[in-house]
Amino acid sequence: MNSPIKQYDVTLEVIGPVHVGSGAILSKKSYVFSDKRHMEMIDLEKMYSFLKKKGLAEKYEQYLMYISHRRNDRNDIKFQDWLERNRIKISDIQDCVKYTIDCGDAIQIDSNDMQISEHIKDAYGMPYIPGSSLKGMLRTILLSSDIINNSDKYSEAGRDMSYNIGKTASRKRYLSGDIKTIETTAFNELNKSKKKSDAVNDYMSGIIVSDSEPICIDDMVLCGKLEGHVNGDEHKINTMRECIKPGTLIKFTITIDETLCKLNPTDIYNAVNDFADCYNKCFISSFKNAEKLQNDYVILGGGSGYVSKTIMYPLYGEKAGVRNVHEVLMRTVAKERNGNHKNQKDLSEGIKLSPSTVTDLCAPLLKEKIIEEIGMLESDKPGRKKVLLKINYDYKKVIGIDIKKNKTTIIITNLKGDILNKIIL
Question: Could you tell me the pTM of the whole model?
Fold first, then answer.
């Protein structure tokens, strides 16, 4: 008797750098350079123990906690410079190095302070791709394919979403009802409960995607991020990420319970092809000199763009899809950014004060660098251009301490909550 449980071994070859973030940000106090092309990430707990033996624990704590409020501050230095100042060689701290990563030409030894997004790692410090990320990618591909091949089934839900796109809601709730309706239409076919939208009716519960096998640290590389424009121009973004190198093999398993899910590998492969065709037609074709996705390519990880995680293009096609995606981004991402990037006139209108009063209020905040000018707002209207302002989340740091019986954890964040340093004692 054949088992209804089928397990398939899957291997993906990395074509472009892949990053799945852990949420941790590594600052200049967390790494040193071993040479021009390699960066060593520091185990802060081991480093603390090492420096404690040398009588430098207090100085190290002061260094980690130090917050600079001015440029060219001689005390606001990289960890490599701090070690040199305290007469410690890089060769002396090798037992305190968690791992070494290839940084190529993404960052130089003499570069300014650069924060690095850490790739997610398992309990043994090995990079991997979570099964949740892989299944999320698969779910989007399958949903997009079903919409492409059964457009009539989604016509009413598409009209409702198109109407609701223009409505105001919190980012968490924005279009959530419409997306739930579309996913229910696609996946909830099991009839295990009377209410179709119940999770027990989702046939995707019959698909289990494992975490990937651990990935060797030698297969990781530090990458910058480029923003591509439709005219072919590229703009470098001040962001660094730990990424899986091209050519690396990502291995995992997909287990399908055929009593719950009727999909097979051919169905999944065809859905991948459908998604790639739609991606090329509705997105890539607009970019000069951009390479199209091959039919057996998938898109995975952070920085791969909203287009790889949305059903807007399968649902609406190219023109309406572009228009609706623009509206969604303006009401979510841009709205969030605009909450940080204001000009003084907009502030005056929002809080019902005159522009001159707001200017007077902003002056001391600018002087203390609590807020910062980030440029001018482009406009075709005559008159003086508006100056954009943003909150300086690095103006102060926040210290969190978790004291338990066997260990004490200390974290340092900026005002936005980004983790800058973490020490376990």
Answer: 0.76
